[in-house]
Amino acid sequence: QVQLQESGPGLVKPSQTLSLTCTVSGAAITANGWCWGWIRQPPGAALEWMACITGSGTTYYSPTLKSRTSISRDTSKNQFTLQLNSVTPEDTAVYYCAGAGYWGPGTQVTVSS
């Protein structure tokens, strides 16, 4: 069974960089056929796809977030990481990692001074 677990700070100050890590078990993030990614849901809003990274390391980004977003991976730990720069209160959301048809439980991130 594939399991994903998000980790990172629950509170970030405006203008800082948010870094979230997803730890995957039950599947290798280097396997072909999947794109391991991040999705977020601001309060009262729809889900928003942000970025993903394939088994070969190819990255894809949402056009609206590309200038502030970076996705990377640590294959030795079977983890992938999202960085979102210059955060504002509008980046407050529940952040999910997903891949291979599975989702993590999500982690609340609040941007506030």
Give a structural overview.
By secondary structure, the protein is an all-beta fold. The chain is 0% helix and 51% strand. It contains no helices and 11 strands. It has strands spanning 3-7, 11-12, 18-25, 35-41, 48-54, 59-61, 69-74, 79-84, 93-99, 102-103, 107-111. The strands form 2 sheets. Strands 2, 4, 5, 6, 9, 10 and 11 form a 7-stranded mixed β-sheet that branches. The model has no long low-confidence stretch (mean pLDDT 97).
Brief rundown of the structure:
This protein is mainly beta and 113 residues long.
Q: What percent of residues adopt helix (DSSP H or I)? A: under 10%
Oligomerization:
single chain
Shape annotation? globular
Which structural class do the helices and strands define?
mainly beta
The count of DSSP E runs of length 2 or more, i.e. the number of strands, is 11
**What does the largest sheet look like?**
7 strands, mixed
* Secondary-structure element order, N to C: EEEEEEEEEEE
Unreliable spans: none
Cα-atom Rg, whole angstroms? 13 Å
Number of helical regions: 0
Percentage beta strand:
over 45%
Mean pLDDT: 97
From the N-terminal CA to the C-terminal CA, the straight-line distance is 39 Å
